[in-house]
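Holo model, S-adenosyl-L-homocysteine. Inputs:
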Amino acid sequence: MGQPTVYIETYGCQMNVSDSELMLGKLASAGYTPVDGPEGADVILVNTCAIRDHAEQRVIGRLGELKRHMRKGSVMGVTGCMAQRLGPQLLEKAKHVSLVIGPDGYRALPQLVESARHGERAILTSFDLEEHYEDFTPRRFDRVKAWIPVQRGCDYRCTYCIVPTTRGSERSRRLDDVVRETAGVVAEGMSEVVLLGQTVNSYNDGTHDFADLLRAVGSVDGIRRVRYTSPHPNDFSERVIQAMAEVPTVCEHVHLPMQSGSSRMLKRMLRRYTREGYLQCVERIRAAIPNVSLTTDIIVGFPGETDEEFEETLSAVREVGFMDAFTFIFSPRDGTPATRLPAELSVPAEVAGERLQRLVETVRSATRERNMTLLGTRHEVLVEREAKRGEAMLMSRTRDFKTVLVPGDATMLGQYLTVEITGTTGSTFTGSVVRERQPLPMAG
Ligand code: SAH
Ligand code: SF4
Ligand code: F3S
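Output:
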């Protein structure tokens, strides 16, 4: 008998991806061998997301499918935000699931998995405000860029959002620990890090704020690109913006969730800024970092959203000129304040669907127009992965987060190239390689 195997499937945000890497690392150090597929794995973990109903339905369906791959003695566990939210209900719903573990419970994984392999079922959904899994060694899926959690939980209470319920209160890792992890990933050959937190720019470890963190991480030897996600508009202090502008390794891209362009909707969402406040934040960032590109998240069909208010979202989208936007139809989440709004305020599904369609069109047409003007320009890209297996095309990114497909093979992963933009599909680009490698890190 060889070592037991573990397969993990991940849904949701980058924080979940990072948590999966920590879980896999923990189990690997306890003697489990990670495998790429569920077939016959001794342990199958599904790390879940609860952000929208659709996300949860997908997982419920997937749990049923994965059952086929279990053999006698194998164990299935559900982790992450749905596990936290549903707890015992999951054990009832899915009889073949024997473990339910929330985001702060992964330290207990090896023991719980062990007892599950002996037939026990367990639920662990308590929060632990000290928990950062500092002593875990993550087993990273990505070999080019490293996800680095710097903050867990969220202290905002946006009325539509389940995250404060599933991830508990905000806490930050110590700056020294983040810097140490960053130096570690450089030693493994990576040069890009993405700092993660739900409102990552509110980072504060008691001594240092997010500006300090950007400066410290950005000056780790060998780091060439620093990104972070997601910041909250209200936490963009001058210090943070200055740090972003001054540290050459911090990339010229901000993912800045707007949610709505209507102040009345923003108030009802408890976003704690107005349309004007958001646009000012954009102005301040642009003034300090002129070539910055912005992406965003937007919700349509929030209770009570009128046609006029939706138009305000469209006009804000045009005004800012986002490079891209993740767009969602409001999904009511049990227990969130938005579910207590009067039922007559709910926006009919057809109306919300049409709004989403128009929003997507608005984002796309602006992007397409702007992208056409980039044909023939040159950019530094980092090769992140193969575009599609066996097609000899690579997916690379510019510093400001544009996707460029370039010809090449797997040996070029992790390389920095200069490319000339030769075409655009509207949202992504194709490019040709101008020079194989940049001479030195950080030109500029
Ligand atoms: N912490 C991040 C967001 C995390 S959730 C932030 O504050 O920016 C990612 C996105 O999902 C949100 O920005 C929001 O646009 C969307 N979202 C969250 N809850 C939602 C809900 N109930 N219905 C629809 N979209 C939602
Ligand atoms: Fe959710 Fe708002 Fe916190 Fe983001 S800031 S995780 S949207 S509550
Ligand atoms: Fe989903 Fe939890 Fe992330 S709800 S978006 S996996 S924090």
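The longest helix spans residues 349-372. The chain has three domains: 5-124, 145-372, 378-436.
Archived with the compound record.
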